[in-house]
């Protein structure tokens, strides 16, 4: 039974990857707006219903690694050592993602995204979702009863740092410039939390 479930999961992952690769190939060859969903399905040799079982929208086809981005950030928080500070861990993950997205092979994809209002709007909604997930992970890590404004703010700053650095002339230098500000904001919040916990 477990082997059967594993086989289905692998097959599902292969199908998803095949669809995403076909979509990206067509989008880059002909332009995002010039390609329809049916054309992507035909290129991937799947039914349109199969395509939509893997991707909720045409925009989602472009951001196939959307879930990976979110999971990397939340797992970085959850898996860090007890003595490992939060912000350097997040910086490391954002830097790795920025390096990946600014590599030569990724340039055509991001040029397409930047030139499409629909894709930019989708990316913005995606960032908000990632920030919410990261805020929840930080709250769980701290053992807080609910999401605080501080956790939400730090999460949003972190996710936005990726976009700001990706679009900068020198992406890695931008990460180096942004994260000390996030670190300072977190230090103030930590100091306030410590004061609140301290006995009168």
Structure description:
Keywords: DNA-binding, Transcription, Transcription regulation. This is Regulatory protein, tetR family. Residues 36-55 bind DNA. InterPro entries: Homeodomain-like_sf, HTH-type_TetR-like_transc_reg, HTH_TetR. It comes from Microlunatus soli. The protein has 200 residues and is mostly helical. The protein has 2 domains: 2-58, Arc Repressor Mutant, subunit A (Orthogonal Bundle), CATH 1.10.10.60; 66-197, Tetracycline Repressor, domain 2 (Orthogonal Bundle), CATH 1.10.357. 80% of the residues lie in helices and 0% in strands. It has helices spanning 2-30, 37-44, 48-54, 58-62, 66-79, 86-101, 107-115, 117-142, 149-167, 171-197. It is globular, with a radius of gyration of 20 Å. The termini are far apart. The mean pLDDT is 91.
């Amino acid at each position: 039974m477990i082997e059967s479930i594993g086989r289905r999961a692998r097959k599902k992952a292969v199908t998803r990857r095949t669809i995403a690769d076909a979509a990206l190939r067509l989008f880059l060859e002909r332009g995002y707006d010039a390609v329809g969903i049916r054309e992507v399905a035909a290129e991937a040799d799947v039914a349109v219903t199969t395509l939509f079982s893997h991707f909720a929208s045409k925009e989602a086809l472009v951001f196939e690694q959307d879930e990976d981005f979110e999971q990397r950030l939340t797992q970085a928080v959850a898996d860090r050592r007890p003595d490992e500070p939060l912000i350097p861990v997040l910086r490391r993950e954002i830097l790795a993602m920025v390096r990946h997205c600014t590599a030569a092979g990724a340039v055509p994809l991001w040029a397409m995204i930047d030139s499409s209002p629909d894709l930019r709007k989708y990316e913005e909604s995606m960032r908000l979702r990632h920030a919410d997930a990261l805020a929840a992970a930080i709250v769980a890590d701290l053992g807080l009863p609910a999401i605080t404004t501080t956790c939400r703010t730090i999460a949003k700053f972190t996710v936005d740092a990726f976009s700001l650095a990706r679009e900068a002339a020198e992406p890695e230098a931008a990460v180096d410039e942004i994260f000390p500000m996030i670190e300072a904001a977190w230090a103030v919040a930590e100091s306030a939390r410590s004061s609140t916990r301290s006995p009168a």
